[in-house]
Amino acid sequence: MSRYARITDNIDWGLITTALAIVFIGLLCLYSSSRGTSLAIFYKQLMWIAIGVLVMIVVFVVDYRVLLRSAWPLYIFMILGLVLVLVIGREISGARRWISLGPMGIQPSELAKIIMIIWLAYWGEQKKHIQGYGIRELVLPTFFILIPVGLILVEPDLGTAGIVALISCTLMLLLGIKRSTFVGLLVLFISAMPFVWFSLKEYQRLRILTFLDPSRDPLGSGYHAMQSKIAVGSGGLLGKGFLEGTQTQLRFLPEHHTDFIFSVVAEEWGFAGSALLLLLYIGLVTKITQIGFKAKDRFGTMICFGVAAYFTLHIFINIAMAVGIFPVVGVPLPFISYGGSFMLINWICIGLVLNIAWRRFMF
Amino acid sequence: MNWNMNNTNNIPGPHIDDDLKWKAKIFIAFVFVLFTILLLRLMNMQVFKGSYYESLARNNRIRIVSIPAQRGKILDRNMEVLADNRPAYNLIAIPEDISDVSFIAHRLAGILGSDEEDMIERIREAKKRPYNPVALARDISFHQMASIETQLYTLPGVSIDATSERDYVLKELGAHVLGFLGEISRKQLEGLKPGSPYAPGDPIGKTGVESICEETLRGTKGVRIFEVDATGRKTKILDEKPPVPGEDVVLTIDKRLQLTACRSMAGRAGSVVAMDPRTGNILAMVSSPSFDPHVFLSPMTPEVWKGIIEDPMHPLENRPIRGQYSPGSVFKVIIAALALRNNFITPQDTVYCPGAYSLGDSTFKCWRRGGHGNMDLVSALAQSCDVYFYVLGERLGIDRISSFCTDLGLGRPTGIEFKDELSGLVPTKEWKYKRFGEQWQKGESVITAIGQGFTLVTPMQMTKVMSSVVNGGNVLTPRILASTEITKERTLNIREADLAVIKEGLKAVVESEKGTARAVRDPDFTMGGKTGTVQVVSGYSSNLPDQSDLPYKIRDHAWFFGFSPVEDPEIVVVAIIEHGGSGSSIAAPVARDVIKEYYAGKGPCDEQVCQDNR
């Protein structure tokens, strides 16, 4: 068997095919929703997909274990990016999330998602001799998680900060926390809530209530949620057909190329289309966890589960928001929502997982 | 698709321990639960409730209507209402529900007596945002409202909205101070940041206090989301958020003084400003002629607009802060203060006035042909002797005069809350060279000293400056909002004795035998002041007792600045009457009336003090 054949044989083509199928559905929706205004974002998205695939290949080629050595430099790079965006970031409707790079913009907070996965996997690898962390072992990683989360909250970008925090929590739980410590933390967390609540100022409480119940702000997010629900529900079993979605085409739906793009899938392709998309997503996540089980070191396993958590959280929150069972927060849909940085990170994740899958054959 | 990976024997076993394996399985189970929730929810919405949502989408039955917030009132210093709200009816249309535009426009134009083409245009414009309700006519009469209400069933897409309309209690008497509301312009809308609360047709403060306090007065709109049936009728309210009324704004203006000043100015062009020299509070601010602010509340016809814009008297101009005039003899007060401060003269020094002053080849006449004879500072102020101040002007020179003027706050906006103040002009040598390419002439310093040169001031600047002279040398920023803090810009560093002498001179203007404003003295209170007459066209003598024979445009401007009481003044009034003739006979009575009213209003208050003392 030639070396070349072996390389290609052991690539997980199923993972790539699934991702490409999702990308294809996403392009259909983006075409449909941007047709009415300007196709520029459609072509931009095509370009980002091409860049994303190239970057995925680069990530795949380099042995992922170099990341063990670059976890700290990456972490520092991430913090610098998050601080920089607060200083020189472009302000768009009150939030600083973008750094301008010529004609493009990048979002350091998107990068933070993947770098935190790598950093926590690295940290778990360093401490793998410990069976179940207690409070003392948890102080340091908690600190290093809270720095980026805090910086993203300042931008402000509640959705992304929440995602980074949840991915981090998932990985910490997988790495293992002592049962007594876990229960203790849980009790502490729950019992602290009322105190936090009553120490808040009136307007802060109101803000949280609006966040939990968007119909308190019906002109803003409540309107989005309602129109999105109408779009999804009216898709019916088989959908209204490509380019036929009235909610999308008549522009009732706001943000229909970014955060609410799932409504376009659901409206134009119906339950059949949205269920197919969900199955593809389930396939993608299952594939990643399988690779995680079979990775040849704990570092690889943790990266895989981190990536699985990353995709699951995005998919769940985004779709739950579109179907009205989750508050409206800015969380995009992997491989589908318009956005360069996000598309890039999605492909980097796939590249990492392919890398881990392929290198378990190397010894 | 290759879902299962080939597990060949030569591959080392995965490094996953049992503990991690167990947790990972829980993780995967959790993932499956989440996806199942989504699938079930989608099935429920799309398969079982699909037809319900489809009907919602078909008609897009959801309407969102904003509920306007009650605008805050504008109150005077005694909490008397100056700008109020009264109930009104607006004619509202939801453009999407109007199918036959020309028919509806025809019917509505018939009832309202308005232009049909204009109505069609308004509806067409509104169709660009078809689900946004838009006001086709504001503040329609009760009769029109009733007549439309009874025919509503034949007018799909049209409804009547009970709302409130601005009511300016003072009408034209407070128009410049209060300003007025108007529909937000397309240009303003385009310049808005995302998330701004304004929609087309919304009222916004255009000028005056309405504009500077827009955010306070505006309040927060409420919102109502409801379902409608096919004809656009409400069927069910889905959600509602009540509006938050705007906050009231309290002014420093005293309604009674404002009215008195307005009445005294009736039929004349000019301004009156009254200020409390201790605080900078503006008690009255009048620009004449004025206009009825109510005409701006609803879209006006081009004829009305043209009438206002092309009025030769410029009623829209806010003269107290935008009218720029030569200061005339009132400026002599500034020269007197500067000369005393810099020791160019003592109060006892005298200048002989023969009726004219020669400098080189030029001769500068005193307004009194025969001359005043020997003049000291007090008598020079009292009789407004030009020669005395020509001498001072020559001695001081323009550099000192202009630098002192700048210290006083001339040549720049006074800092009152209004945004569109003009700066006036403080001439300097550099300014003249830049402007005319010529050197400064000594003679120009001389006429500057009597307020006739290049210097330009606004009535508000004059009020601020004169207040600082009579209040002991504190330059205070005028304020119209009670919420603005009292701001002391600087102290003039003039000796108290010098200020006292100036005040004595100003008192003599009114009280002394030969004072130029002797006619307005009042037995009930002490009053000081200074008259000023500005030649608009040189060559016409300003000492004609009666200028009413002259054409209006070339008559002199009349200034008067008055304050009372002379000891510890509580009120400063500056009045200017454009083409009014002589300051003493025309402008001084206006200021006197305001001061008299000030005491009349204080009366009960004093009684209270008296009773307390008993």
Walkthrough of the structure:
The complex is a heterodimer of chains A (363) and B (614). Helix content of chain A is 72%, strand content 4%. Chain A has 363 residues and is mainly alpha-helical. A three-stranded antiparallel sheet of chain A has the order 1-2-3. In chain A, strand 1 and strand 2 (95-101) form a beta hairpin. Chain A is globular. The longest helix of chain B is centred in the N-terminal third of the chain and has 31 residues, at 18-48. In chain B, a hairpin with a 5-residue loop joins strand 2 (74-75) and strand 3. Chain B has 20 helices and 21 strands. The radius of gyration of chain B is 35 Å and the shape is elongated. Classes of the chains: A mainly alpha (363), B alpha+beta (614). Chains A and B meet through helix 2, helix 7, helix 10, helix 12 and helix 13 of A and helix 1, helix 2, strand 1 and strand 9 of B.
Oligomer: heterodimer
Mean pLDDT of chain B: 84
Q: What is the molecular shape of chain A?
A: globular
Beta percentage of chain B is 15-25%
Number of helices in the DSSP assignment of chain A: 14
Secondary-structure element pattern of chain A, one letter each: HHHHEEEHHHHHHHHHH
**How many angstroms does the end-to-end distance of chain B come to?**
105 Å
Please identify the structural class of chain A as seen in this structure. Answer: mainly alpha
